[in-house]
Amino acid sequence: MQVKLLGIVGLCFAASAATANQVWEKPVAPGLVYREEITQDPPRIIHSLRLIASNPVTTIVPELAGKTVYDAKGDGRATVSQMVKDTNALAAINGDFFPFTGDPLGLMVREGQLVSLPNPKRIAFGWGPNNSVFSFAKFSGSVDLESGKSIEISGLDEECQDNKVTLNGPEAGINKSKAPCMTAILKVDGGRLIPSTQVSATVVALTSDGANMPLKAGQYTLVGQGNKMNTISGLKAGERVTIKLTTNGFDWEKIENAISGGPQLLRGGDIAVDADNEGLGKDFTDTRHPRTAIGKTADGDLIFVAIDGRQKMSVGATLEETAQIMKGLGCRDAMNLDGGGSTCMNIFGVNMSRPSDKTGERPVANGIAFYGPRLLTADQGLRIVVPASLAVNGTGMAKVVDKKGKEVPNIEVFWSMSGAAWVDQGGMMSGLEAGTTTIEAFVRGTLISTKVVIK
């Protein structure tokens, strides 16, 4: 399938005579295109990444933003930009909802490895090499003992709740539980847990001092809290057990990755905002907020969207408006992800979206990272040229020039600006308040920046 890439300088599209929407499209990697659309009524900035179906070169993988669910401080969150840096990804967007301890609240499967259990009320998106689908998932799990008894698994890679049993793998980071608790350290045959499986394991040791114990590579634990402590303490070192996991809702022979969010936005081309059934309130649904979403077109292309919000230049969107936006981008099916201060789209280490929190980019639990070929970084003498100053509420053009002073075509430049001004993907800067800020540009494999004064 061919993708039409738009030359940026001097190009925009008029959506109608009444509303002139500006649109820019820029290639990121083979089969991956970034798009920015700016609307006037209401004022809104929409960022999107389109991944062409059956693209053999550029891929997507869900990633834990902090590499593990929990770190030594009990918070494994990281910013999307840090995730791009840590994974050497081309780009990334934020993912699922989370508490401030950093545990994704819904399903997460990374390259076949089950990382987080589904919330049966919340929609999830799963994909593999040749297939992708939106679905609801449901989990059940147990650890069966040689004696014939069975221990129900209530959680995975998360804090063990009162009177529950949780199974943790190395991706959890730490064996998180309130003290007192009882922990069995396991060695899993094959060292890997997939969403639906039956696998044997060996009890290596038992400890009553396992709360917040760091987990080593390849190490699994079964932790019981409250009245489940005796269940775990009854295990013996050397005992063989069988871990049984069942995650319904996806064909795991075709689906290798999954991430959750909610609610569903589109189903079969129709708007199907299912917020009530997915447990999301009226303010979340009907108030304009920054939004992140995933959609799929009839051709199988995947659309990833970040809508700026809570700002003068972009008011955000209700869920209904988000669904309309996804439909306008050609999606037939779509779901919402976490939004608000979590909304972020980063390309080449540059935030294309503009975080709404005054403190800047918010650390998140997980996201979707894009991988593919990239340009080699080289010092080409590139620099950004800007006016000596910019007026508050005024505008001014930025451009990139090479060492000979020749302007670089804008289709090659990814612009970003925060603080006292903002910039569109045509290089037009707009002053918001008096101060000094930085404009960044990623161009020809190089990240460059310069200061801009707003008076």
Q: Could you describe the 3D structure shown?
A:
The chain is built from four helices and 36 strands. By secondary structure, the protein is mainly beta. It has three domains: 226 residues, no CATH class; 111 residues, no CATH class; 72 residues, Immunoglobulin-like (Sandwich). The strands form eight sheets. The chain has an eight-stranded antiparallel β-sheet, covered by helices on one side. The protein has an eight-stranded mixed β-sheet with strand order 11-10-19-16-15-18-13-12. The protein has a five-stranded antiparallel β-sheet with strand order 4-28-5-26-27, with helices on one face. The longest helix is centred in the C-terminal third of the chain and has 10 residues.
Question: Any key phrases for this structure?
Answer:
single chain, 455 residues, mainly beta, Immunoglobulin-like, 3 domains, eight-stranded antiparallel beta sheet, eight-stranded mixed beta sheet, 36 strands, 41% strand, disordered N terminus
* Biggest β-sheet strands, sense, barrel: 8 strands, antiparallel
Quickly count the helices. Answer: 4
Cα distance spanning the termini: 48 Å
Beta strand count: 36
Low-confidence spans: 1-18
Mean pLDDT: 94
- Give me the side-by-side strand order of the main sheet: 1-2-3-24-23-25-21-22
Q: Helical proportion?
A: under 10%
Shape designation: elongated
Which structural category fits the helices and strands?
mainly beta
Counted up, domains total 3
Rg on CA atoms, Å: 24 Å
What proportion of the residues form beta strands (DSSP E)?
35-45%
